[in-house]
From TrEMBL, chains A, B:
This is TetR/AcrR family transcriptional regulator. It comes from Pseudonocardia humida. Residues 22-82 form the HTH tetR-type domain. Pfam families: TetR_C_13 (PF16925). It comes from the Bacteria. InterPro entries: Homeodomain-like_sf, HTH_TetR, Tet_transcr_reg_TetR-rel_C_sf, TetR_C. PROSITE patterns: HTH_TETR_2. Residues 45-64 bind DNA. Signal peptide: none annotated. Transmembrane segments: none annotated. Keywords: DNA-binding, Transcription, Transcription regulation.
Amino acid sequence: MSEQRVAPADAGAVDGRLLRGARSRRAIARHAVDVASVEGLTALSIGRLAGDLGISKSGVQALFGSKENLQLAAVEAARETFLAEVLRPARAAAPGVARLRALVERWIAYVESPLYPGGCFRVANLSEFDSRPGPVRDALARDTRDWQATLAAELRRAAAAGETAADLDAELVAFQIDAVLCAANTALRLGDDQVVDKVRRVLDALLSAPAAGAAR
Amino acid sequence: MSEQRVAPADAGAVDGRLLRGARSRRAIARHAVDVASVEGLTALSIGRLAGDLGISKSGVQALFGSKENLQLAAVEAARETFLAEVLRPARAAAPGVARLRALVERWIAYVESPLYPGGCFRVANLSEFDSRPGPVRDALARDTRDWQATLAAELRRAAAAGETAADLDAELVAFQIDAVLCAANTALRLGDDQVVDKVRRVLDALLSAPAAGAAR
DNA sequence: GAACTAACTGTACGATCGGACGTATTGTTT
DNA sequence: AAACAATACGTCCGATCGTACAGTTAGTTC
């Protein structure tokens, strides 16, 4: 595999071939995310992808080597998009409750957007791979762990700053928030628009109620 | 389609052919549920199903007419299993909080059981079909609505009996419980056993905290 | 017993899948 | 200029998919 071999020791003199390949891989992976968000990573087909992008099936095959590698590249591309659309913008908000609310709001906007007809890539594909051991499942599981850890970390900051109850169980509340967001993603696909309000109300309750989510 | 044409007006004189067909359909649909719980309703293949059960591919085809009909039959079979494994046993508990806890405990047992390697059929397949309009999506969405409605109804009974806060928002809490259960289903697939405790703690918090989940 | 119906089999078709070549093109290195 | 490396293409393969169709077997109805 020749993955991301760009940017060598002497910057400026990058290999034009690798650069071109990286660009192609990127474009393919991005489109793969869109397709897989709606139809799933399994239904993803190399031939269909090539047809959509107007390139040859063999080209895609040569760039990724195998379908599993293509799936992994899609997971990675989705991860980067999530980083850029949710995590990075929310970092502008102050740590603690404010950033937590920003994360949730960015997540809602990210999932609600008509740009992503299939909703959250991770949610759509994790339940497809959760019973199928392999590198794809591992990658998706890692994303889930990271996301919940991000929420938990912000919850701990909020608790430390006295913005929430001091005895708040960060991991448990993070688990709840993620659960509600995933459920909201599905509900939105089914046409339930009221679910966004529900998410906000749940978040309010979790952050304000000193007893809720606390390990007693 | 000759769906469930058994049990005519004069009971006792059932058509043996239809009875046999119904039995075959049942057996196939049951196995389809097992397969689809792990690999999804899309990955379900008529040929594979026939091979597993030792019957001819054409036989399956003739019994269901199309793959979509087979998928719908699987959804129906899963619904009946869920009814028998979760809803019906929980009805032994007293209405209100007791039955609510019974429902959740039965759900956990149902999902944790090694008999169901793919976990909850609905959870596994809804996220696969939520972006794909059609009768299969509608059937799965109906199951979800019914399940949340069952939870909400029990919550209302609990509130009316004074077992929880009177101003508890039944629909919102039902949404939360379902969300947490679905997340737990996925977490269990990923090998996280602690999630069962998390579910119980969340349920405790939701039922005891008067403020949590209330519309204020 | 004859006509009919439903369950089931066997075979075949067109489409699509992932993957395995061999080859041409383009860019890099020596 | 020569050797090499990476992208990209065209073609072919075996496997599997859903479905259609003709035919056989078993049970019902007249």
